[in-house]
Amino acid sequence: MSRATQRNVVAEKSVAARKRAATKARGVAEKSVVIGQSAERQSQPIQKPRLRYTGALSALTPDERASLVRRTIGTDSLVRDRTEEIIRRVRGDGDRALREMAVEFDGVALDALEVPRLVRQRALAEIDPVLRSALEHAAWNITLFHSAAPPRPVEIQTEPGVTVGRRPDPLRRVGIYSPGGQAAYASSVLMAGIPAKVARVSEIVLCSPPQKDGYPAKVVLAACEIAGVDRVFALGGAGAIAAMAYGTESVPRVDRIVGPGNAYVAEAKIQVSRDVGIDSPAGPSELLVICDGDADVETIAREVIAQAEHDVNACVVVVALDDETASAITDAIGRLGGLADIARSALTQRGGVLSAGSIAEAVEFAAEFAPEHLLLAVKDADSMLPDIRNAGCVFVGEQSSVVFGDYITGGNHVLPTGGLARSYSGLGPLDFLRWTSYQKVTRAAARRLSSDTAVLANAEGLPAHAAAALGWSEQC
Fold first, then answer.
1. Which of 303, 309, 372, 398 is catalytic?
2. Tens digit of pLDDT for each residue in 439-458?
3. Which homologous superfamily is 45-72+284-400 in?
4. Among 183, 223, 174, 241, residue whose Cα is nearest residue 203
5. pTM of the predicted model, to two decimals?
6. Which one, out of 136, 147, 215, 394, has a CA that is 20 to 30 A from the CA of 56?
7. Which residue in the list 146, 310, 373, 413 is annotated as catalytic?
């Protein structure tokens, strides 16, 4: 063995000895990786995180419970007024307004609003091959899941001579918004574009804010190619929503707009919804975890922090089935340390670790809470699943991490928030089609239906309806 090798071995043994000594001195104290140093673990004191909601679920005051359940954040009047003005400018000045806004909000003078196909293809070819492989992995699973149950036409004869039917028709053109400010969400491009493609939408249009080169983020352009998006525009914010809703010289008018965005994008979608379809109004990310004493507390803590890092207004709540587990999870969140400012603010404003006296109490609260994501980290999660209602998506078992659903399982991560899971579902192919209903009545059936139809029409004070029905009685 060379002297250099001997020195390395001695050094490695010395490091290992220090680790064992530190571990023994700490007892069961936790460890954290120090960034920029070796992988040696160092002790980290437990710092209780600041959480808005703690204690027993049953001990929440009516106001506290109401603030948890009614999570919709009202639109700031300034946001509402500025969004209204942006929409007015786009409707009045079209492309000129969009170019001015690109300079004003993005600091970019655009040569063209639409991204050439060659630029998109080059983006796909140039991204990291590992990233491309991951995107294609996700795209495959998303396609597989969303293709599994295609909508089918229905036609039945309700009585002799009377046929009633309903036929699914893909929308002609849909618009997708992909954020591109602080973060570019290529995964959201796949989650919206692929279901639209599965639904056989004729044309898929996407808008995303321009970077300094005048084009959306390269990873977004690559995802557009993978998802099969037809046209891409370097447009961001409320102006992009208005352009897709009403059309301009360059941007075609669409039939429905989907996709996440900031407060201005969300407000713009609401304001244009009188003229174009939108997906469910989107808000900050949400997670509700129901867990028992068998759950790994650090696993739960990681899930909490992961969803809290989305937004300062994210709402992340754990309901443990005993006080000891609730306390251990609170400690685990503190031990993990290194919380980003966004996650720390979210936990302080809208985070909670609560305890419930029974599974029934936790399930009842979950139905009332109606979260975007619901993680069932209990021993027999499968048996609990049939009792769950009002969740955007349910993750069954602690190993079914919500972050897998955010990216790669194939389920959709565009989900209802703010308690809207009581009435809205996650995005899918059905959001990209409409149903055409039709009815066929034979002359013999018209004669048979005329009398009862007239009776009902007269009961509602509509004599012309009654006369129209009885007219068929005389003609047949």
1. 372
2. 999 999 999 999 999 999 99
3. Nitrogenase molybdenum iron protein domain (3.40.50.1980)
4. 174
5. 0.86
6. 394
7. 373
CA distances from 273 to 199, 254, 276, 469, 474 (A): 21, 12, 5, 37, 46
Within a 13 Å sphere around the CA of 171, how many CA atoms are in the beta-carbon half?
Answer: 24
Task: Please list the alpha-helical segments (H only) found in 247-396.
Answer: 263-272, 297-308, 323-336, 341-350, 359-369, 381-384
Q: What is the DSSP letter of 4?
A: H
**In CATH, which of 3.40.50.1980, 3.20.20.150, 3.40.50.300, 2.60.120.650 is domain 77-149+169-278?**
3.40.50.1980
Could you tell me which residues come within 8 angstroms of residue 116 by beta carbon, excluding any fewer than 6 positions away? none
Which of 9-23, 71-85, 418-432 holds the top average pLDDT?
Answer: 418-432
Distant-in-sequence, close-in-space partners of 468: CB < 8 Å, separation ≥ 6: none
User: Would the CA dihedral through 437, 442, 444, 450 be positive or negative?
Assistant: positive
Q: Are 393 and 411 in contact (CB under 8 A)?
A: yes
> Taking a C-beta distance cutoff of 8 angstroms, is the pair 317, 308 a contact?
no
pLDDT given for residue 8 in this prediction: 40
Respond yes or no: is residue 373 known to be catalytic: yes
SS3 at position 177: strand
Q: How far apart are CA 12 and CA 5, in angstroms?
A: 10
Q: What is the pLDDT of residues 161-216, one digit of tens each?
A: 999 999 999 999 999 999 986 678 999 999 999 999 999 999 999 999 999 999 99
Separation between Cα atoms, residue 239 and residue 242, nearest integer Å: 5
Q: Tell me: pLDDT of 38 over 70.
A: no
Q: Which amino acid is at 220?
A: V
Q: What is the pLDDT of residue 1?
A: 43
